[in-house]
Amino acid sequence: MDNDLDAGHLSRPIKVIRPPVLSASLIFSSVKTLLLYADLLHTFTMLRLTVRYKQSVLGWIWAALQPLALMIVYTVIFSRVAKVSSDGTPYPVFVLTGLLPWALFSSAITTATAGLTNYSHLVTKVYFPREIIPLSYVAAAVVDFILASFLLGGFMIYYKAPVTWNVLYAVPIIGLLTAFTTAVALVFSALNVRLRDVSMAMPLFLQVWMWTTPTAYSLQSVPAEMRRIYLANPLAALIESFRCVVLRGDSPHAGTVTLAGAITLISLVAAYAGFKKLEATMADFI
For residues 261 and 115, what is the distance between their CA atoms, to the nearest angstrom? Predict the structure, then answer.
């Protein structure tokens, strides 16, 4: 009897689990699996929002209060002291159209970077697509952006800023911004599993990135010979395009948005493929 069991055991195929090979099939199969866990992504996102504002007196108002505070500080410093040009538009509205998209990006990246390590007890014990954790932080940041957009709308009404149908371009622009944010979040969250220095360096990294992005100043303030380099940064291109359609009522520059879209698409595919490649060994390092 024992010999038969041993023989049966030896005849079973042995499966060796290795990191997946990078390929198009890996990406498609991973996306298909991710869609099956859409309810879990929704649960994690609502958890982010609930925990963030739990036992808070102001609650969801914080989503608008933080950019409002920055707007006041920037208006005093850059408009009154440094005399930064706002292209003829009221500076409070001008800076808000840069701060809100930036806040979406920076908030998502700051929280998503340490997401996997914060949930190490789940990553090491339960199977689910690991990208759900950083994606939930990005989704929560998008919700905050939508809430803060009412603040921008209020200031536009107050300053009687003209609104045209071109404002609808803001939706695909924010969609591209969210996609690029997702790509960066996937990269940093995966790297932080192996190198905790990533989360430690993130505040400095984002601060440098912010000042190289036209949030508090206009793209026209940048010397003409440097603008092409600036627009190679998808954040600069998308924030400038967002300001163009929302504040100025113009249509976005097709070449600028196309370049930002191409960089975003390549970045997202590469980031997702790399994340899935590292996913198999995350539990070993976390």
Answer: 26
- Our CA angle for 159, 160, 163, nearest 5°, is 125
SS3 assignment, position 68 = helix
Contacts of 66 (CB under 8 A, 6+ apart): 103
The Cα 256–Cα 11 span in angstroms is: 60
**Does residue 104 contact residue 181 with C-beta atoms inside 8 Å?**
yes
Helices (H) and strands (E) in the chain, counts: 14, 0
pLDDT in tens, the chain (286 residues): 445 545 544 455 554 445 666 667 777 888 888 888 899 999 999 888 887 766 665 666 767 778 888 888 888 887 776 677 777 788 889 999 999 999 999 999 999 999 888 888 887 888 888 899 999 999 999 999 998 899 899 989 998 888 889 999 999 999 999 999 999 999 999 999 888 888 888 989 999 998 888 888 888 888 887 888 888 899 999 999 999 999 888 889 898 899 999 999 999 999 999 898 888 777 667 7
| CA–CA–CA angle 171, 177, 179 (5° rounding) | 105
Pairwise CA distance, residues 222 & 236, whole Å? 11
Q: Which of 59, 146, 167, 134 is nearest to 104 (CA)?
A: 146
Map out the domains of the chain as residue ranges: 39-285
Locus of tokens 């990135």: 209
Question: Is the Cβ–Cβ distance between 150 and 224 less than 8 Å?
Answer: no
Full-model pTM: 0.87
Please give the backbone phi and psi of residue 19, each rounded to the nearest 5 degrees, phi first.
Answer: -55, 140
Instruction: From 101, 187, 186, 100, select the one nearest 151 (Cα to Cα).
Output: 100
Longest Cα–Cα distance in the chain: 90
